[in-house]
Fold this protein.
Amino acid sequence: DQQVKQNSPSLSVQEGRISILNCDYTNSMFDYFLWYKKYPAEGPTFLISISSIKDKNEDGRFTVFLNKSAKHLSLHIVPSQPGDSAVYFCAAINTGTASKLTFGTGTRLQVTL
Amino acid sequence: DSGVTQTPKHLITATGQRVTLRCSPRSGDLSVYWYQQSLDQGLQFLIQYYNGEERAKGNILERFSAQQFPDLHSELNLSSLELGDSALYFCASSVSGANYGYTFGSGTRLTVV
């Protein structure tokens, strides 16, 4: 059972435009969400996170939005840069119980010139 | 360099064999997590150790086992290997079991032929 879903395997965006990556989850007990970025031949690196008590968290060009009622979160990258081309994983955790992250299948973002 | 070291980077072995993957966590991190990434799949949680003790278990096959040693490095043992075990195996570490921002190693790519 895939509790964290990223339904778009890939996304192509022009440089300077906004990239929007989406993630849905089914487990209502998840209360903390993270985004990781992964380049080829490297491990995932932490990008940004959000607690369920918030609906938005911003860090530079990256903003994560959380809609708890829809069990949906999104990552906005503005403006997109070629160096943002990578695979982005959404992850979620129930901080009250297990300490393991549950990951989505990832979205490959390509930022074109 | 993330500070999490995984060896070897690549491993090719035959079906039925046994291999050991090694992970050295980031200095000061007590928790080690093992994840498997098969083709086009997300990161599947295998197992977590905290300060030498098993803390959480995911969908880890009985043919797989792991341990964390007193110096906090961890090993993942895969035995009776099958073609379907071919995957990227990532190790991640965090300061404590409740720290959600994991630091990942660059992974071991296992190919079973």
